[in-house]
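Researcher: Let's run the pair from yesterday's discussion. Sequence first, then tokens, for each.
Model: Starting with the first of the pair.
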Amino acid sequence: MIKCGASPQDEATAAENFTHLNNDALELKITQLSADINAATCEQVLLIAEFDTRQAWCHEGLRSCAHW
């Protein structure tokens, strides 16, 4: 995984880690990762909705879940 602030040399090394994958395997890896990200985002939104429903954010002078 390429990290923010990585040097060009680090980025080149990270890119080489995927060179062994053929196009189909690379596409599959990308789509699977995208699905995982989307599933995690969905779970996060559902958790935030429950947090808001419970007004669990309501402390220390906070006015709303968005303010939290």
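Model: Moving on to the second of the pair.
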Amino acid sequence: MVKDEGLAIVYDQDIIWSKSFGYTSLTTKTPVTSNTVFRIGSITKLFTATMLMQLRDAGLLRLDQSVDPFIPVDIDAPFTDPRPINFRQLSSHTSGFPPEGGDYWQTLKIPSIKQLYAENPIIHLEHPSFTSMSYSNFGVSVMGDVLASISNMPYEKYVTSKIFKPLKMVNSAFSPSDFENQIIAVGYTVTTGKQVPVENINLNALTPAGQSYSSVNDLSKFISLQFREGTSSDGQILSGSSLREMHHPVYLFPEISKPNSLGFAVGIGWFIRNISGYHAVGHGGGIPGYSADITLVPNFKIGVVTLTNGGISEGNDPTSLNKEILEKIVPAIATAKRNIRLKKAFYRKVWGKYLGEYDLVGVAKLYIVKQSEFMALVHPLDKPEEAGILVPKQENTFVLEGGIAHGAKVDFKVDETGKITGLTVVGIFAPKL
């Protein structure tokens, strides 16, 4: 069972912990480092999605624009309400495209994009758009080809010059021949109990879906990008608003309470995950001999990358490992951040005047209570332990953190004697009883 891997934990713009295990090759016994190059498979799709958003922001396309005029084949959509296939659908695997354009994973002989189109003169959609999420290497590869055409630049050249270089991802590329002195980890599989090197296949037409190589250090830089704000610049290759747009759902899976290994929803390129009750995004990658994953929690600016030179079938599961790591870290960060904010609160000396029962007439009774060292608003639909904490903004004005009305402003009304007469929440006044 192959367990040679590199990991890093990223907080905002810094790697705060990094560790490597095992060897890049069982022959040379060269140790894995944070700069060791691995194949990262489908994490490549995040670069393709980033390219999409860059071209959108440059005004060269719209997310809901049809791709039909750009591809030299016909699309068969035998549905009652067929709609043109667009970039938003392709980037979120909701277009209905079949998973692959052939049985090339059996032979590991991937055709060129021109051959792929020739072998698929008619693309038969498997379902109407936005009715299901069907993971499609084929769809993302077609999108990558279209984006290259729109940008007037080969796909690999675009990603290298517009994503890798500005982010200083010096150990990221699309072919072993692109590297000079970097050490590339040998991919392994297990056959009859022995670790055997795998053939290093070229994905050709599927390059936008899974061809790239990278390192732990480089993908840490890509994670840090996700936490940045502001407009596009040399180092900020995509605006903060566009990054956030990518992180939010395009399609929710039917049973969001039962997420699969990908997550419970899909955004633009990213899969939406749940880490200890917080919004997370991530993407895994698997290709013969390698498996990888990056997962991050944007609200806390924390992320993890794991790369390994063993396939998922060999028991390597970077996605589960990253989830396990973050589920140990995120609750601690959440508690620390809440305590830091609330330790600045001015109301502890005077909060007695706020405590009590308030009548949200015709709706419910609300209670302002002392909860541990904090002050909370309890709504009948809240479990006591999940009541919203009142975070002070200015005298007599608070914002709820948690609870059914999370994010709502709470204004306490005061008479001329300084006595609290009621509160206003979500625009409704509740007199104090």
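Researcher: Give me one sentence on the second I can quote.
Model: The domain at 5-335 is CATH 3.40.710.10 (Beta-lactamase).
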